[in-house]
Specification:
With 538 residues, the chain is of the alpha/beta class. Helix content is 28%, strand content 25%. It has helices at residues 2-20, 23-32, 85-92, 140-153, 182-193, 218-235, 254-263, 287-291, 294-298, 301-314, 342-355, 383-394, 450-457, 466-469, and strands at residues 35-47, 53-57, 98-101, 109-111, 136-138, 156-161, 168-169, 175-176, 198-203, 244-250, 271-276, 280-281, 319-325, 328-329, 358-363, 395-404, 410-417, 423-429, 436-442, 470-478, 488-490, 493-494, 509-512, 517-519, 523-529. The two termini are 40 Å apart. It holds the Pfam family Glyco_hydro_79n.
Amino acid sequence: MAAGLLLKVVGFCVWALFWLGGTATVSTTALAGGDAVVVDAWSAVAATDDDFICATLDWWPPDKCDYGTCSWGLATLLNLNLSNKILLNAVKAFSPLKLRLGGSLQDMLIYDTGDSGQPCTPFVKNTSAMFGFSQGCLPLHRWDELNAFFQKSGAKIFFGLNALNGRIPMPDGSLGGPWNYTNAASFIRYTVNKGYDIRGWELGNELSGSGVGARIDADQYAADVINLKHIIDSTYQGNPSKPLVLAPGGFFDAAWFTELVSKTKPGQMDVITHHIYNLGPGVDDHLIEKILNPSYLDGEASTFSNLQGILKSAGTSTVAWVGEAGGAYNSGHHLVTDAFVFSFWYLDQLGMSSKYDTKTYCRQTLVGGNYGLLNTTTFEPNPDYYSALLWHRLMGTTVLSTTFNGTNKIRAYAHCAKNSQGITLLLINLSGNNTNRIYVTSEGAQAQSARKEGRRFSHIPGLGEAAELTREEYHLTPKDGNLQSQQVLLNGNVLATDANGNIPKLEPVQVEGTQPITVVPYSIVFAHIPSFYAPACR
């Protein structure tokens, strides 16, 4: 008993030293047999939207195939089974989930409002057409059905409009001429008249910079965005709130994005959206190697940093979103982008993008392709669904600077806790061999005044205050240790829906706060630390 008490006292002393922060913390790590995550608890580095997590729904027909595999099935906007219980419950669990409706075929989609002068026909395979399909059409009865689902599920909807109507080929290979917005404006009016709640309208898909399939110069695009803003202002006149204007939904190109921001300020474009597929094509056999390579993951930071710099320099109110991110293009890769291993990439992206003031991150897809949060045929959640849900419930909007003093195979991110005291720490272990025992400390304590030091010391809970010392941990591991498993364990228990399609409860384990956080090989840990003193979170 005396030995147990001694261990507890020693553990508390080590924990207290870490908690106090500063240089003494690092020198203690070797003695403690662990490494340190250092969190700057005194000031925020960025802020996200409260509903940072977003997912996409696409337009692809069932015969959209990549590398001989047809992975879309009946899982897109024109054919999705909206009565599926798991689908409804999966969206409702977020309360709310942002949904971005769009994708490659949105710029070949007309809306059946009666003004297009064309019949409303579905997408048909046509190898000579852009993206391999003819022009398609959204029947208004389907739009009505979709909105009934959105209302029932509580989703927040952002709709991607066709930006190619009216374009003409230019000598430099781009498409020019002003956007013909007649059909889009008619569709927006129909939507408003029906009382459908659309939170944002986005112009175009992947037409920025060198474009994918087609491209439009930034100068023309800016003029088109301003026209969209005028349409929204007039159509929503008298409404208590107007939807956001988003653009361009394309790949980051510094010069192109700079010009678009410059020519749409002030106040013409609320959100600038960009897409991320930094792992390359879905057919790549080296996707897992890339995902497990810290240097490769770090490569995307420059995109977030450069866009943040453009917005700051411009002095604009426009904010940045990731409007679509599937990691590997051409529908992803089965048993990689829909398996446990992809949570390493996905959660790292969420953490990294947050640090650079990205307000919302839209995952390609909610369902459809080989990168859905839900299984394309059964709608059963894939591991990334639970990763997204845990982020949504645990990570607050205030982003804290976080560094780890050990191996680069540990990725560490911290936010103020959501709707709770303290912080939530996300730890990702890319190593398949090493278990890490990690202490958490606050940076900057030594620089504070003696008065602040004294006040800070008073926040260290005593040994008798067991509740104060407790933290909540959520450990995610793949079933059977298989990185390519489509089942994930939370604290050792398989997560799966029940017979009624209900999303399982996500229950933490309670851990004594004096103990280090144990991160086993190939695992992910969310740790909510309510007793962590973080002035930035007040």
